[in-house]
């Protein structure tokens, strides 16, 4: 594995999150949740686009029909990248007024999955405590139909599907545990939830990527590292990072072997100039593709 690089020298996110690799465009999409900004970067050219919102944004993913779907704090919206205009779509967690969107990914059939949590962002961007586990996990189909699968989540993190499409992974940072479900790709139903992995040191479980070998690369909030879990949930390796709070990661690049890692400055003193940076490293292992929303 080669050295860890800082992708953008002058960008530091308050709460970088949600990396998505658009292979068709050669573009990395990611967000700064607290900074209320979404980004799209072409690493090959350095071209960077950004869009600002009036509320936190936790994910930006391309749509098959063109444009983007963005997960704003309290609802999903379509966004025109040329104008930045948004059009409201659905609000999967509207019955939990005190929650906000957090984790999100698109499954291989183009369905959008959204995990939420108690809102921990104050009106001025200040960090608020998470005191209750009111988060939910919802599937949003192309036509906007919403199906709920999990409730009583503290902080939703990691949404992945195994290379054969028969398993789904989802976790809760409050319990520091990653679970695995049986997954029916045709129906989009996750079932038979069970334990997959839990590591009580090296920080807390945050977002993850999965490679073609079925290994999971998990960002460790507060742990300054990634843990690569094998398909049985055991630790394959630990990779030290130059940031305090890595938040999530995705495999992309021209060979799908570049791991892009988001990070955060929230709650930190500012003594580490790398905190909040977007990082990359060459893994030598191909990743699984990301998918556009079908709606």
N-to-C order of helices and strands = EEEEEEEEEEEEEEEEEEEEEEEE
The domain count comes to 1
On the 0 to 100 scale, the average pLDDT is 97
Whole-angstrom Rg: 17 Å
- How many helices in DSSP terms? 0
CATH class: Mainly Beta
Instruction: Identify the CATH homologous superfamily.
Output: TolB, C-terminal domain
The biggest beta sheet reads: 4 strands, antiparallel
CATH topology: Neuraminidase
Q: Under the CATH scheme, which architecture would be assigned?
A: 6 Propeller
Strand numbers in spatial order across the main sheet: 1-24-23-22
Described by the principal axes of the CA atoms, the overall outline is: globular
Query: What class do helices, strands and sheet pairing give?
Result: mainly beta
Strand fraction band?
Answer: over 45%
Give the total of beta strands.
Answer: 24
Q: Outline the low-pLDDT stretches.
A: none
Distance between the termini: 38 Å
3D structure, described in words:
The chain has strands at residues 5-6, 16-22, 27-32, 37-42, 47-52, 57-62, 68-72, 76-79, 86-88, 99-106, 112-118, 135-140, 146-153, 156-161, 167-172, 177-184, 189-198, 204-210, 216-221, 225-229, 235-240, 245-252, 258-264, 279-282. It has 295 residues and is mainly β. It has a single domain, classed as TolB, C-terminal domain (Neuraminidase, 6 Propeller). It has a four-stranded antiparallel β-sheet with strand order 1-24-23-22, with no helix packed on it. A hairpin with a 5-residue loop joins β14 and β15. It is globular and about 45 Å long. The N and C termini lie far apart (38 Å). The model has no long low-confidence stretch (mean pLDDT 97).
